[in-house]
Automatic annotation (TrEMBL):
It comes from the Bacteria. It holds the Pfam family DUF6495. This is DUF6495 family protein. InterPro entries: DUF6495.
Length: 156
């Protein structure tokens, strides 16, 4: 398995897609029930293959990632050859931008001396989607890129 298995909730959301996936494997409902009961290791493999297919599709479509920490905001635009990063650092340890109050402070004080902006380009490894997945596993979330675009315009 390349990524990780989908959660029970994700499988429930993708129930119809999973049925279609099994159909492409020529596995009927009865065969799936039998597989789960009598060959659970094969059923587990099918769940893993389906999970990897879903992750590949999601990661291929992802264009932006965001990750918030108490004093840092990491914003990424996921290009074809490299990712562009914008990092917003808060130098005052008393301000936590993961809270509503801290985020509002940042919004109202973007040009304060306690706010630092950094930009960088980062090359992908040989497996671009695995790079994206690792960032998600570390807490990044896929977004539409509104914050990235806002800060990119602000600091460019």
């Amino acid at each position: 398995m390349k990524y990780r298995r989908l959660t029970k909730e994700q499988f429930e959301e993708l129930h119809q897609e999973f049925i279609n996936f099994l159909a492409t494997q020529s596995i009927t409902h009865e065969e799936w029930t039998n597989l789960k009961a009598n060959k659970p290791e094969l059923a587990e493999m099918e769940l893993d293959v389906f999970s990897d297919l879903i992750w590949e599709g999601v990661l291929n479509k992802a264009e932006y990632l965001e990750h918030f920490a108490p004093q840092h905001m990491y914003l990424f635009r996921l290009g074809k050859k490299k990712m562009k990063a914008i990092v917003v650092n808060i130098k005052n340890p008393e301000i936590d931008i993961t809270t509503k109050e801290g985020y509002n402070w940042l919004r109202d004080n973007l040009m304060d001396d306690n706010v630092e902006f950094l930009q960088a380009d980062k090359a992908y490894s040989d497996d671009k989607n695995l790079d994206k997945f690792k960032m998600i596993e570390q807490g990044a979330v896929i977004t539409k890129g509104d914050l990235f675009q806002y800060f990119d315009n602000l600091i460019s």
